[in-house]
Structure formats: structure tokens, C-alpha cells
Design a protein that fits this description.
The protein folds into two domains: 258 residues, MetI-like fold (Orthogonal Bundle); 240 residues, Orthogonal Bundle (MetI-like fold), CATH 1.10.3720. It has 26 helices and four strands. Strands 1-2 form a two-stranded parallel sheet. A two-stranded antiparallel sheet has the order 3-4. Helix 2 packs across helix 19 and helix 20 runs antiparallel to helix 23. It is globular, with a radius of gyration of 24 Å. The protein starts with a helix and ends in a 5-residue tail after the last helix.
């Protein structure tokens, strides 16, 4: 046990240095000016401009969450109730948007709804979707749709059919049966997925920046502008304090919703999905399923196809020219490096993030699920707080903390990796925690009774059984690392350019073809990653 406690020092030191210390630095910057002061917070809150941005951030997050639920709940029903050929593959493809870099999602929407976009040319007029709140809501729904589908469908398959059968025997049918019996049992999944979606939309950066413009800026964009454009660290820090406070409040409700969700998932009854045969497809319900699937397919796949198509068009004809340029070793002045260096950096950062975040999450998950100690609930909350932090706020904290001795790390590649680890780690923790919950404690107790030490029992018995969840978490960490933009943009030097930075720079230079080719590379990596996850069969949500 003593050795196990020593191992716990690693995550505690890492989280303290690379999450809590930057957090404290931001709070100090916003509340200190030759002494404690609320001047900058009052300045932000008394400004109608900043108040409007804070209010819009909450409103767009609520609207995005509602739209995501409207799109996701029918999909959750289909995946929970029916079995059909290619279901796993389709589920993997639908999950790809969640780990797509937001910069790529923005590119897809520009190619579809821009003045020269596909839908604009098809209809013959500008739909006026880009550069306003409509684009933000649509892109967020595209991004978070998989969260609702996977979390709610997983719970829907565990709804005890005996309750519905009993209600039907008492005369409940159709929507009444759903509203009074099924829906209450699904609420933990709906609430948990809604809270997670809301947090992601609240902390969104690239989508509001590119698709909304400064007229529809969010707190993230406001922080970024204050620091990187106006060089006003005091106002930026005050905004970050407001954002941190709000996001931690939302995180509290999310953690509570996860407890309810976990209890609901413990139901032992697991429904066998009904085979979707040809006769079922011809019924009214089947036609509605086909119509919904078509809408979702267009909504989810069309931005991806738009990017793929654009990457294959050069001067009006099909060509691989953009890919030839992407795989060139030639120096590119747009971002100060070659695209091959950007690809190399992304892969290096991604694999290093896997190692750090998996070690971190594995130790924390084991402590949470196998140890009993005072203050365990507080510890649980503290180690999950990184989920409620934004990439931009994290980048700001790193700039403030690591720009001078003894922690002069600013400008190094490993500081970027540490930021990626903090961002990815909560999702790895979720994946490993989910699989550890399924391992019966008596297996470890049996090993201990045979004379094995605690660490040996874990390595020989529990670790092999948890391997599926660890692999899922590792893949997810890699996908999140290569898709990260916000913190990387604030911390990188030209020699540490990543794929997402290169895409952003290409978009700024209006080089759509190169941006599309790099985005396709990310799409392929993400698709392969989630096909592997589906094969393993472990859930991360």
C-alpha cells in the first residue's frame, strides 16, 4: 500500500504544476494590482460589450444543446432498438465529428454555406448561415451529436422492459407510454449528455471565432482577443476568472449527472436490438427512420465530403496536387515550417500525450475505484476539474506561469504536450473508470488471499481485464491531441507547428485546397481511431 501511495505523487505533482498553478496564476493576475482588487472584474462586468458576450455565450450553449438533443435523441432510439448491417461502422463514422478539429468543421461549413459554397450554388442564393449565430449552433450540433447518440442509446438498451410491459397492461400506449415510463428512466442519460454538450459549447473557441466572427464572439474569443490582440492581460484574466467560475459550476452539475447516469447503467437487463428487416422498413416507423437517417447522413457527412471533394480539385479539375504540396518538405512561409514538420509534430505530440495521460488517468482511476479514504469526494471533484477548463484559459495560465525561472518552459514543445495531456486526461480517466467499475473486486481479493501484493494483484489480474478501456482512452487521447488548436496556438513556436495550426494559417491565407488536404488526413486518422474503438467495444461516454 505504501508503494501505491508513492505512485499517487506523480498525478498530484503533474496536476498541481500544469493545471492548478496556472489556474492560480490567472486568478492572481485578475485580482491583484499592488494588492487585492476587484477593479478588473468590475470593469468587465460593468461593460455592456463584455456582458453581452457573457450572455451570448450562455444563450448559444443552451441553443446548441437543445438542437443537439433534437437531432441526437431519434438516433439514440434507432441504435438502441434496432440491429442492422454496418451498425458498428456507422456508429464509428457518426463519432468522427466529435474528435474532428473544430477548425476542420469550420472549413466544411464554409465550403458548404459560403458565397461560393455547394448549397449556395445549388439553391442560387446566399443562405446567410455563415458569420452569425445560426452557423455556431449548427456546427456545435454537428460536433456534439455523437455524445447524445452514444450516451442515451447505451442507457436506452438497459431500460427494463418489464416496466413498459406493466404500463401497457394498464392501457398505456404510444407517446403516453414513452412520456410516463420510458422517458423518466432515460433522464439520467439525457441530463448527463446535455450537461457535457453544454460545457463543450460554452468553452468552444474555433467555431465561434471563424463562423461567428467578432460580432458573435464568446467568452473564449473575448479572452483570446484581449490577450493576443490587445495585449490586455488584466482584462483577459478577469474574463478567464468569470469563465472558470461558470464552467466549474456547470462541471459540478455534470459530475452529479454522471453519478445518476452510472447508477442507471448498472441495470443488468440488456435488451437485444430488433433486426430491421425489409417489412419493418416499409412501415410508417421504418419510413421515418429512413428519412431521419438521410437527414443525419447529409448533416454529418456533407461537411466531411465537402472537405474531401475540395482537396481533390485543383484549378477546376480532379488532381492530387494539394496532397503533393502537403507532403512536400519545402518551407512554407505562411506558418514558418514545412507541412511535413507539422505532421511530424502532431504525431509526436499525440503519442507523447498518450503516454502521459494514460499513466495519469490509470493511477487516478485506480485510487478512486479501489481505495476508501476521507475526502474522497473532494479528491474526485479536484481531479475532474480539468474537464471544465478551456484550452484558451489553459494557454493563458501557461503564458503567465512558465515565462520566467524557475519554470521557464514557454516556447518548448513539451509544454504543448503538457497542455494536450491536461485536455485529454479527463476523457482517458472516464474510459478507464468505466471499465474498472465492471471488474468485480472479489477477483483482486482472491489474488490477495493467495499471497499476492496489491501492486502484483493489480498488474496480474485487474490490468489485463482493464486493457480494453485503457486502449480506448489512449486512442481518444491521441485523437484529441492532434485535433487541439486553442492552447497550441497560444504556446507554439514556428518549429512546433501542428496540423491544426497549419490548417488555421492556410484558412487565413485563403488557401482552401491545402487546408482541405490536411483536414482529410485528420479525418482518416480519426476514422481509423474510432473504428478500432468500436472493435474493442468499450464505451468512453
Amino acid at each position: 500500500m505504501r508503494g501505491a501511495k508513492i505512485i499517487l505523487i506523480f498525478p498530484l505533482i503533474f496536476l498541481t504544476l500544469f493545471f492548478y498553478l496556472p489556474l492560480v496564476s490567472i486568478i492572481h493576475e485578475g485580482l491583484w494590482d499592488n494588492g487585492f482588487t476587484l477593479k478588473y472584474l468590475i470593469e468587465v462586468l460593468s461593460s455592456s460589450y463584455h456582458r453581452g458576450i457573457i450572455l451570448f455565450t450562455i444563450k448559444q450553449a443552451l441553443g446548441s444543446t437543445l438542437l443537439t438533443l433534437i437531432l441526437g435523441l431519434p438516433g439514440a432510439y434507432i441504435f438502441a432498438k434496432y440491429e442492422f448491417p454496418g451498425k458498428r461502422f456507422l456508429k464509428a463514422i457518426l463519432t468522427v465529428p466529435f474528435v474532428m478539429p473544430s477548425i476542420m468543421v469550420a472549413l466544411g461549413f464554409i465550403l458548404l454555406f459560403g458565397k461560393q459554397g455547394f448549397f449556395t450554388q445549388l439553391i442560387g442564393r446566399d443562405l446567410e448561415i455563415l458569420y452569425n449565430w445560426k452557423a455556431i449552433l449548427l456546427a456545435h450540433a454537428f460536433y456534439n451529436f455523437p455524445v447524445v447518440v452514444r450516451m442515451v442509446s447505451s442507457l436506452w438498451q438497459r431500460v427494463n422492459p418489464h416496466y413498459e410491459e406493466m404500463a401497457m397492461s394498464l392501457g398505456a400506449r404510444g407517446f403516453t407510454l414513452f412520456r410516463k415510463v420510458t422517458l423518466p428512466m432515460l433522464m439520467p442519460g439525457i441530463f448527463a449528455s446535455s450537461m457535457l454538450t453544454f460545457i463543450f459549447c460554452f468553452l468552444s473557441f474555433s467555431i465561434p471565432l471563424i463562423l461567428g466572427g467578432y460580432k458573435y464572439a464568446t467568452i473564449e474569443v473575448d479572452i483570446f482577443t484581449s490577450i493576443m490582440t490587445l495585449l490586455n492581460f488584466k482584462v483577459g484574466s478577469a474574463l478567464a476568472i468569470i469563465q472558470i467560475t461558470l464552467s466549474f459550476i456547470f462541471m459540478y452539475f455534470y459530475i452529479k449527472s454522471l453519478d445518476l447516469y452510472a447508477k442507471a447503467e448498472e441495470q443488468r437487463i440488456f435488451r437485444t436490438p430488433k433486426k430491421l428487416d425489409f417489412k419493418e422498413l416499409l412501415s410508417l416507423r421504418g419510413l421515418l427512420i429512413i428519412f431521419y437517417s438521410l437527414i443525419v447522413f447529409i448533416f454529418i457527412i456533407s461537411p466531411l465530403l465537402a472537405v474531401l471533394y475540395d482537396s481533390l480539385i485543383y484549378q477546376g479539375t480532379f488532381s492530387l496536387e494539394w496532397y503533393r504540396r502537403v507532403f512536400s518538405k519545402r518551407y512554407n512561409p505562411i506558418f514558418g515550417a514545412s507541412t511535413m514538420i507539422a505532421i511530424r509534430n502532431s504525431l509526436l505530440f499525440g503519442f507523447t500525450t498518450i503516454i502521459l495521460s494514460t499513466l495519469l488517468a490509470l493511477i487516478v482511476a485506480y485510487v478512486l475505484h479501489r481505495w476508501q479514504f476521507k475526502g474522497k469526494n473532494i479528491f474526485d471533484t479536484l481531479v475532474m476539474l480539468p474537464l471544465g477548463s478551456s484550452a484558451i484559459t489553459l494557454g493563458l495560465g501557461y503564458i503567465r506561469t512558465f515565462h520566467k525561472p524557475p519554470l521557464e518552459l514557454l516556447g518548448t514543445w513539451y509544454l504543448i504536450v503538457f497542455a494536450h495531456t491536461i485536455i485529454a486526461y479527463p476523457f482517458v480517466l472516464r474510459a478507464i473508470s468505466a471499465v474498472l467499475k465492471k471488474i468485480r473486486p472479489n477477483l483482486k481479493e482472491a489474488a490477495l488471499s493467495l499471497g499476492a501484493k496489491e501492486w502484483k494483484a493489480f498488474l496480474r489480474v485487474e490490468l489485463p481485464l482493464a486493457l480494453g478501456g485503457i486502449i480506448v482512452g489512449a486512442i481518444f487521447a491521441f485523437a484529441m491531441s492532434i485535433a487541439e488548436l486553442g492552447a497550441t496556438y497560444m504556446l507554439y513556436q514556428p518549429e512546433y507547428t501542428t496540423i491544426t495550426i497549419a490548417i488555421y494559417r492556410f484558412l487565413g491565407a485563403r488557401q482552401w485546397g491545402s487546408a482541405s488536404a490536411l483536414s482529410v488526413i485528420l479525418m482518416v486518422i480519426s476514422a481509423i481511431s474510432f473504428i478500432i474503438i468500436e472493435r474493442i467495444g468499450e464505451e468512453i461516454w
